Amino acid sequence: MIGTGSIGRRLTLLLAGVAALLSVLSWWMVTGLAREAAERTQDNVLAASATTIAETLRSEQGEVRLELPYSAFSMLGAIGEDRVFYQVMAGDKLLTGYDDLPALSDTPAPGQIAFDTGEFSGEAVRMASVSRLVLAGTQPIPVKVTVAQTRNGVGTISEDLSRLAALLSVAFFVIAVVLSAIAARTSLRPLNEIAAAVSRRGPSDLRPLHRNAPTELAPLMSSLNRLMERLGQSIRRSEDFIAEAAHRVRTPLATVRAQAEIALRSVEDESEKQRLRQIIRAVDESSRSAGQLLDHATVTYRADDLARVPVDLSELAKQTAGGLEPTASMKDIRLRLFTVYAQVAGDPVLLENALRNVLDNAIKYSPEETDVTLRITTSGTEARIAVSDEGPGLGEGPAQALTERFRRGSNTQGIVGSGLGLTIAEDVLSAHGGRLELKSAEGGTGACVALVLPLS
Amino acid sequence: MRYLLVEDNRELADAIVNRLALDGHAVDHAASLADAEDCLAAAQYDLILLDVMLPDGDGRDFLTRSRAHLETPVIVLTARSQVSDRVGALDQGADDYITKPFDFSELEARCRAVLRRRGGEARNEIALGNAIFDPLAGTLRHGEQTIDLRNREIRLLEVFARHRGQILSKSQLMDRLFSYDAEVTENAIEVYVGRLRRRIDGMDLRIETVRGLGYRMETGEA
């Protein structure tokens, strides 16, 4: 057994092993059959030759005579370059031929043929012997005709056939190995298709898999679907829990804030007003931080397994700016959009979140009645969404440091913020292979934050 | 404007109702989805403010269910600021959402934006002397002339229009115009009143300064 490893390779090896065994077996059988066929052919020719000689026996004046017919030997010549020996015995007397030809182990009955293998003049020979009664005068004399032939031709023929069989076996084996590999791949295709279908899915797609799978894969499929079902349930449960917790915490906070705001209107004393403002500010601070922390967690989770769908940045910018329009109008800030079509591949929810954080910052830090400008440009392989405002700029210190967690600018006193907005934006952009560029406007006031993304 | 507020927390609901009433809106309050159904069956509303978590169900499910036959724009009040939740609410047919806890000025701004976007039949033009003021569109028509007002001017004029003849103090006006933490002084009110006066110049409409008390708007010839 091969431990863990490729099922495909294991299946191929197994099938190839079987093919190798069958190839060897077939070679061995073909070789055996070929030898047997060659031998039988030689036997037949030897028998025919011996019979032909025996046919020419006749009695003449009480003597047994024979004429050796040429055809009796020419037919033997058909099998290779073998030497042929013969012997004709009338009773115990040698009529003609080689008298030292070894005797057959069993003498054939009259009219019958016997075969044997022996050794003559240092070579293996095959012998066929025919016996016949010839009437010489009044006495029937048993005459035995024996024809022998060396076995080189038979060996050559069977060797040739064996070689051919070996060649065919090797070819058969090679074809079998190729077919095994194809068969293994074909049988594993449904498995690969399922794997591909699962890996193509987005991070939050936990629908059950529905595809035609072979019976053997049905248990795997149903376990997979059960696992996804359980995962989905547990995600839903935790989402429900977060939603419930947020609701329970934020509704009373909203009440506190609303009451404080109403109280703020009815009190006259400036120090009491100040206290109420502090209450509202604290509520805003906590709710904003909680929201941003949650957003940050979501972004981190979704960025790990990033969905990539085509996103038109100009459409995204219009929607995001539309959502922030009321906030901007509260300070009479104009949101000016200059967009061109720019398509990137990414997670629209994350990209929207990043852009909203940047725009929200710009509005938050802008003075009343100013412009916030969003401009989309493309150059080469990059799209750039530049958001510039007329606010106080990014303050002292290195601008890029503002993307660090909980880091806020040196000039943000008095404005509610969590210090996570730019961190989130930067995380989203780097997950998409882009970057966040921060700089204060030269000379005057204002900041420019650019979201740079690779075009798809 | 007639609003329907669907919110199960009584204190919060009271505060929202009070605040919206200040802007001259009539607000019905429903504490559950069943109440909301009853209200919708009985009256026509211009805008619905819908909490997502209610004792008898999810506000978003209600939204999906009733979207087919409900024309009224909806703003969802959500407790979550999580990205997916916002997107989800908009997908299910909400016109906008606002995250709890919220600034009343923001709620007001969002209501206004949704009404303007969805407006049409929901015009509530106010006649001010010989001029017609459309607070949603933010326009002031006078004869052939249509003046576009900025947001603060619209709100200032709206407050004056709803309290015609009454004296409004600078601090009252500030509360309505600025978010609680805006770094502004009462001088800002003088700036906006000055601007608005230039806008209505030539109409039979005046904003008078009542020394030591505030301002008052009068219509008709002086």
Automatic annotation (TrEMBL), chain A:
Pfam families: 2CSK_N (PF08521), HATPase_c (PF02518), HisKA (PF00512)
Enzyme class: transferase
Compartments in which it is found: Membrane
GO cellular component, one term: plasma membrane
Segments forming domain Histidine kinase: 244-456
Residues spanning the membrane: 164-184
Highest taxon in the source lineage: Bacteria
Protein name in the entry: histidine kinase
UniProtKB/TrEMBL annotation, chain B:
Residue ranges of domain OmpR/PhoB-type in the record: 123-219
Organism whose genome encodes this protein: Marivita geojedonensis
Coiled-coil ranges from the UniProt annotation: none
GO biological process, any: regulation of DNA-templated transcription
Name used for this protein in its record: Chemotaxis protein CheY
DNA-binding region residue numbers: 123-219
Residue ranges occupied by any Response regulatory domain in the UniProt entry: 2-115
Keyword Amino-acid biosynthesis attached: no
Gene Ontology CC annotations of this record: cytosol; protein-DNA complex
Pfam families for the chain: Response_reg (PF00072), Trans_reg_C (PF00486)
Superkingdom per UniProt: Bacteria
GO molecular function, one term: transcription cis-regulatory region binding
Keywords: DNA-binding, Phosphoprotein, Transcription, Transcription regulation
Kinase keyword on record: no
4-aspartylphosphate carried by residues: 51
